[in-house]
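Rotation project, supervised by the postdoc (A.L.). Task for the rotation student: set up a whole-complex structure prediction and record inputs and outputs verbatim in this book. Inputs entered:
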Amino acid sequence: MEEDLISKKDLLDLTGISYGQLYRWKRKQLIPEDWFIRKSTFTGQETFFPKKLILARVHNILNLKDDLSLDDLAGKLSDNFSFSTLTLSAEMALERNIVSNVTMNKFGEWPGVGREYNFDQLLHLYTVDSLLGNGEINLEEADLLLQTLRLRTPRFEGKNYDLFFIRKMGVSSFILAPSPAELLFDEGVRLVTKVSLGDLIEQLKGKLT
Amino acid sequence: MMNKNQLPDMIISGVSDAAGGSYDQVIIDGVGRIKGAVTSRVFRGNGNIHVMGDLAAEELDCNGTMNVRGNISFDTMRADGMFKVKGALRGERFNLNGLINIQGNCELEEFKGEGGFTIDGLLSAGHVDFQLQGSGKAREIGVESIVILQANIGVWSKLWSGIFPTFKPELVTGTIEGDHINLEYTTAEIVRGNTVIIGPGCKIGLVEYRSELSVHPASVIGKEEKIGG
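Outputs recorded:
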């Protein structure tokens, strides 16, 4: 699977940041090492980035860097630990446009917890909400998705994973696979949507900070 | 973290081996071999020092030769002499007078000095200000600003550099990317920057610049390209 990549030069043009900033952020570990993908092109070696991830990250850094020092930022963005202690109330989640009213009313009741959500739970709600919002799944499927995410994702232990949603003969199923994953299906299967949870995590972090 | 006051000191005078560990101060005069990873607040070495593992210190001060098998990290480091690092080098400020050989990446906020360096990985720094007396080598350089100058060299080193190419005071690298770039006697495939000043003695395949480029007439540039508005 050819992921959507952006070259370093295009990234700088698009975001208006400089080489110096980019290298500084890398040194401060604001941008993970494994996002730097080296590829040979006709002009020689070039560095590429996963497009969605890097654009979201640069956006987040630019938004936050006036309020926080780069070192504080690194703690905020690059490890999930500072997020793992975070909890958000239902009202806050609605206020920050993380979850829509419909989703919150239908799925907001979490077994065992009150109306306070940790990062993983927010991510699950956010995933469900964005798919519902796109009209790609219906409410029944949303319920199934939420249960699947809740039960299965702890096994990925923080690694990035992709979510596939397929339909065949009117029957729908969800598939979770560690990314980058390429799945091949038989002819009758329609791949309704594929979501990289890494992108969603990045977006969610943007909304939370 | 342990209370700093409780940490012991390691002091070696003469010739000795020592185990690694956490120390407040490590002071070595003579020949010292540390057989493991060592962490300290202050690390001072004079003479010949071997560290078989990682070396981490807030303040590093070294005269003579040092050989580190692992990674090296510090806040500030002053080094006079010859240094070899098997792993990566990471720190805030590094002042070098002599030669260093780093097999991993080198990440610094400020890199100043005179002498020569060989970096097999990426040299990433806030500011590089270096006078070359020997050869400078790096696979890739990414900086905010870089100034590479050739130090005034005497007749003897000119003579030596004819015999041993490693003494030739030139920078050789694949790509240099930075905001402000000022180079002398540099061979590079690609130089990309905002303001680029190419001094004498450079051979550069491609220069991409955003706002300014000036080229010394005694330098050869394959292709110049202005990018952006």
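Student's summary: Chain B has two domains: 1-87, 117-229.
Supervisor addendum: The first helix of chain B runs from residue 155 to 163.
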